[in-house]
Amino acid sequence: MRFETENDPEVLRQAALLLERENQKLAKKIIELTAELLALKGGDPEQLKLRIAELEQQIAQKNRLLFGEKSERRDGDEQDATPEPPAPPKPPQKGHGPKAQPSLPIVEVVHELDEADRVCNSCGSALEVWEGQFEESEVVDVVPRRFELKKHKRQKYRCRCGGCVETAPAPVKLFEGARYSVDFAVEVATEKYCEHSPLERQVRKMRREGLLVESQTLWDQIERLARLLAPGYEALVRHVLSQPVIGVDETRWPLLGKNEPSRWHAWSIVAPDAVAYRILEGRSTEEAKQVLRGYEGVAMCDGYAVYKSLAKGENAGIELAHCWAHVRREFIKAEKSYPEETRAVLGLIRGLYAVEAQCEAGASGDDKRRELRANASKPIVDRIRDFAETTAVVPGSSLDDAIQYMAGLWSGLTRFLKDPRIPLDNNHTERAERGVVVGRKNHYGSRSKRGTEVAAVFYSYVESAKLCGIDPKVYLRTAVMAALRGERIALPHEVAGGR
């Protein structure tokens, strides 16, 4: 073994243990030989004892230097030394070490010498197995995905009387005569709507792995899954709209195959434990009505004019709360031209977030949040209003635009002061849209109206499962199996709450 090039800690530890045992054997032998030598020379017995004790002390000291803790503490220091402050913690090791993998199964692989190599290099004798002695190391390996063509043989049974023939039950299928399993369909859906892999890309990957399949076949699988999951999707929408405070937003979602620019948009409504999507042809008031379905409660949104018009007339049950993160972005746009003015207001907005950070998230922090907002946040909001009213600006400038944007949303921006359930911004909703945005960048939207409906179903399930800390693939399979059995589909927040 070359110690100057070996960097495996476990190998070096085993080598150090072996060296320590050999060192102890040699030390014992030196003491025995020294005693024999002094006896042969006719030395005094007392001097012999002292010499041996001195030798043992020297060997023990060398062992501590080699194998002991690197410490200058001596026995008795606790009694006769003044206490010293504890040593500062060691700085964190640079770089990254091995990461613990508690979820991975452990597979032990024993490596043995070939028969031809089991010969001693010194004497030529045969090497024997040293029971229980190994040099161990760990590597993380990958098990390739493998497709199988399973042939199901349903055993038939008959009675000798000829009056009865029974057959073992068939495995659960998506539909009668389905060639692909439920797990295969769930795998395709997860790859497309969670890992954002287009069907054509999946086809190429499957071909490399030995499976010949067409993208239309893959689409048939996920379209069938969407039909099964539709009742649960509607229940998910109803759950979100039953919450007292929700987030609302929309983002572009192209519908392919048209010559004119696509105006389709993915609308999202978000609760703390669920998100639901509708992909519609536009982002007007009519589409907003279809998404919110007469919702009564607080809707956190940006300054898009459709939301203001929605809160009037027949939809007067909606109260709008507006997003401080959007206000902050407007002032950041003006920062380059007006550094002093924007520094002041950005610092005040940062103060609002500092107050929020003192409260526990969720309903358990509502009482403290209500108190802090009244005593700490309101004075900050008053200073922001004074800034907007007293700051001289050039009409039409970027700073003027930022102040006008904030002033136009003031009632919604200050609604959080009276209701501790209202968040400071709509970032929660924007984070829930990341999956849709990444998917749009990978497969460029949908090819048909039915494709938008299927996408809305799967994105709602996948992103809701993520919000609840559930593996989307595991959840989708559970939901599909419940639907195939004719049972009610448990929603992600219900599954998470029952764990």
TrEMBL record:
Residues 67-76 have a biased composition (Basic and acidic residues). InterPro entries: Transposase-related, Transposase_IS66_central, Znf_dom_IS66. Residues 117-161 form the Transposase IS66 zinc-finger binding domain. Residues 179-453 form the Transposase IS66 central domain. It comes from the Bacteria. Pfam families: DDE_Tnp_IS66 (PF03050), zf-IS66 (PF13005). Residues 83-92 have a biased composition (Pro residues). Residues 64-101 are annotated as: Disordered. This is IS66 family transposase. It comes from Polyangium spumosum.
